[in-house]
Each structure stands twice: as C-alpha cells, then as structure tokens.
Design a protein that fits this description.
oxidoreductase, 11 helices, Benzoyl_CoA_Oase_BoxB, 7 strands, Aromatic_CoA_ox/epox, two-stranded antiparallel ribbon, 3-stranded antiparallel beta sheet, Ribonucleotide Reductase, subunit A, about 475 residues
Length: about 475
C-alpha cells in the first residue's frame, strides 16, 4: 500500500475522501508543529539523513534522504488490511474483527490508545537536549530518526482518536500535547516517561529497555479485535525496531570501548581514561530495567483480564500460543514476597497477563545482556553484566514496598540503603557520565567514551555527513 505524499497530511487511509476528519486533523496539525518547535530537538540543524516511509509492504517500504527536520512529513500509515482476519482470543474468538468501535468497549479502547499515545511525545521531550552532546554525527542522526518516528507514532494514535471516538477523542488528542515529561502540573501518564534522559548512556539504555517495553505493548495491541488499531500497531512495530537497534548497538559500543581500555591498561579503573566503567554501566542497566518493568503494571489485573476477554488486547504473539486462547481454566505462576522471601504463587492466568507479558520482555532483555557479555569475553574479560532480579527497585506491583537486592534477596531497609550506591547510579556516577558528554560533530570522528559502529546507515560509511549543522 503506497503512501500518498501529495496530501497535506501524508496517509494511506483515503483521508481525502473524509472531509470532516481531514479538516479536524488539519486543525490539529499546527498545534503539533508548534509542540515540535517548542519541545522537539533543541540543536539547530540544516538537514538530517532520515528514513521516511513510502509504503507499508514488507519490502522497500522506506526512503532515505537529507530532510530539514521541520519539513519532515509526518503522516498516518496503517498496515494492509487482511479481509479474512478473525478475532484470535477472548469471548468473541473466531468472529470477524471490528472495523468500528463497539459501543460497550468505547471507553476502554480509548483509554488504551491514549496511554500508548502519551508515551510517544514524552520520549521526544525527554531527549530534547541530547543533540547538544552527540558523540558523533552517526549517533546524532539516529537520535533524530528516533525523534521523528516517535512523532509519527503520536500521529498514529491521534488519527484513531479523531477517526473513531468523536468529541471525546478529539479532546484527548489535544491533551496529548498539553502534558509534558517531568512537568509538576501536567506530567506524562506513566512514570518512566517523566524520568530524565540527561546523557547518551541513559539514551542507549532507554532505547534498549524502555522502547523494548513499547515493542511488547504494541505487540499486544496488534492482536486487538479492533482492526484499525491492530493495523496501526503492526506498522509502528516496523519503525520501533530501529529504536531498539539504536539501544542495543549503543550499549554494545559503550561496553566495547570499556573493554578495550580495560585490556589496554590491565585495570578496571578506566574512568580516568575518559570511559565509563563496567560497574557504572551495570548500575544504569539496573535502573533502566527496573523502571521499565514498572511499565507492565501489577502482576495481577482485572482490567487486563477484561481487555483480553473482550478481545481488546491480546498476548504477545497470541496466535502462536498452544492453548485455547480463552484462559478461563488456565493458571500461571507469579513471584511474590512471603515471610521475607520471594516465592511462587499460583493464580488464574487470566488475571496474571501482565506477568506473562513481563516474562516475555525479560527473556528478550536477557539477549542483549548476553550479547554485551560476549563482547567482554572476546576481549579476554569475565562476562560480568547481568539483569537484576525482577523485584529489584520496583515501585509498582507485588514488589512495591519491599527491598529486593539484585540477586533476589529480600532485605530490610537499612541493608538496602547501605547497598543502594553499589546497585544504582550515584550522583558521582552521573556527574562522571555527564562530564564525558562533549559533542563531536566532525564526520568520521567520535567521542572517546564510545566505540564507532561497525556499519553506517543504509550502506553509507560511518564518515558520511549524516547531519548538516
């Protein structure tokens, strides 16, 4: 399905045929552009080598070229419709998917879309000033690619709100631009999207861990019986993959540089050589992983059970599951704290769907840690990086209010406080990382704290001038 770029709002949803919807979105567009100018990237640029979607097929869907950021063509793109698609789970299993919102599910679907939509501009706001300290033009370009695609994902959710939810949807679309990350008066809905992203190590961790949460949330919405939401999320997942690539390879390169200096100087104390020590990298892993786990909510949730039963939100890769897709009799094992220890609790699987999704996410996160440890092994170093226990540093769910060490031991508050500085970034750690954040804008050059990438973008060399300042 080709995308029509002759329209004021590029789209593949025949927007030209719906004058009311087109006018409503064209009225929202100037407010989006104003938000972008005020809350988008702070570094002035002439143009950036960006990827723009030109179709939604499996092959040849993207075009690369230098584009001025304010001129980027944000639009509305849905994956191609499967006319034979049927609901894969819940009480409506086997029936045709919905092209309109059933009245009884209107409020719940709108809430799901609003929460997803709120995360998209939030990350742009969090990353607003990172361009001022980019370690290379390659990294600067990747930052801006992530930013414009988060902006497009906001458009994706706003289209659904305008097209299918009437006045209340239009009001929610307006509110998406009124909340701001970290604002005391109007913060973003989810806690992780009010955290600071003050440095590039945090950015790489965010795009690895928090954008990976986005992958799994979009994956559950892709299963939805509401077909426009499913098709929207299917295409968003294509774009989201690049964001996780930035995180995965970004941490790769930080670990690679640390390993090189540890080997060259036969020492763990590499901060004095302008690098980020492994123990600091581990603390950032601990923080960003635990904060991202909170995004999955509590282990048990009647709301999520109701979403599943209604067909609004499925499980990750629902149709590959070997069960009845109803879960009325199934049970699940989830961890909890009992008598000062972490133990297993058997619960109805239908109310433990958050824990199920979190388990899929944790297994995926582990692949990155194994990858980073292989880099250490290749340099003759011990593979010391790890994911902390799922109960570590949690503010949401069954572990909230408990003090769980990275190895899973339940501690009293005094022991936890005594160990905090070994497990989470300290003010001194953050100051050291920030001190390394000096911009490098010369093509082919890179900051000393991070290794260069193995490959450039779209076949271009690392030394290519990805951004014109």
């Amino acid at each position: 399905m080709a995308i029509d770029y002759s329209e004021r709002i590029p789209n593949n949803v025949n927007l030209a045929d719906d004058r009311r919807l087109r006018r409503a979105l064209e009225s929202w567009q100037p407010r989006f552009l104003q938000w972008w100018s005020e809350m988008g990237p702070a570094l002035p640029t002439q143009d950036v080598y960006l990827r723009t979607a030109v179709a939604v097929g499996r092959e040849g869907w993207a075009h690369f070229d230098h584009v001025a950021l304010p001129d980027y063509r944000w639009g509305i793109f849905l994956a191609e419709r499967d006319t034979d698609r049927r609901i894969a789970f819940g009480q409506h299993k086997g029936r045709p998917v919905w092209q309109q919102v059933p009245g009884e599910y209107r409020a719940d679907l709108q809430r799901l879309i609003v929460i997803q939509g709120d995360t998209e501009p939030a990350s742009v706001e969090q990353q607003r000033r990172l361009g001022l300290t980019a370690p290379s033009l390659y990294d600067l370009r990747n930052l801006f690619q992530v930013n414009v695609e988060e902006g497009r994902h906001l458009w994706a959710m706003v289209y659904l709100l305008h097209a299918y939810f009437g006045r209340s949807g239009r009001d929610e679309a307006e509110a998406l631009l009124l909340r701001n990350s970290g604002s005391e008066d109007s913060p973003r809905i989810l806690g992780a999207f009010n955290e600071e992203t003050p440095d590039w190590l945090s950015f790489f961790m965010f795009t690895y861990f928090t954008d990976r949460d986005g992958k799994y949330q979009l994956g559950t919405l892709k299963e939805s019986a509401f077909d426009p939401l499913s098709r929207t999320c299917e295409f968003m997942l294509k774009e989201e993959a690049h964001h996780m690539f930035v995180g995965t390879t970004g941490v790769d390169r930080v670990v690679e540089r640390a390993a090189q200096l540890m080997r060259d100087h036969d020492s763990d104390d590499i901060a004095k050589y302008g690098a980020i020590p492994l123990d600091v990298i581990q603390k950032y892993i601990n923080f960003h992983y635990s904060v991202s786990l909170d995004l999955f909510g509590g282990e048990t949730s009647t709301n999520v059970a109701n979403y599943f039963t209604a067909g609004l939100k499925g499980r990750w890769q629902e149709e590959r599951r070997g069960d009845d897709h109803l879960l009325t009799e199934a049970v699940a094992v989830v961890p909890h704290v009992e008598r000062g220890q972490v133990s297993d609790l058997r619960l109805p699987a239908l109310t433990a769907l958050n824990a199920d999704l979190r388990g899929e996410y944790a297994a995926d996160c582990l692949t990155g840690v194994n990858r980073w440890n292989r880099i250490l092994t290749a340099h003759g170093l011990d593979p010391t990086l790890y994911l902390p226990h799922v109960g570590f540093n949690r503010k949401v769910g069954t572990f909230a209010g408990h003090h769980v060490a990275p190895d899973g031991r339940v501690l009293d508050e005094a022991v936890w406080e005594a160990g905090r500085d070994r497990w989470l970034p300290t003010a001194e750690d953050k100051t050291h990382v920030l001190a390394l954040m000096r911009p490098v804008y010369e093509p082919g050059k890179i900051a000393a704290w991070v290794a260069p990438p193995r490959n450039g973008i779209n076949g271009q060399p690392f030394a290519y001038e990805y951004v014109h300042l």
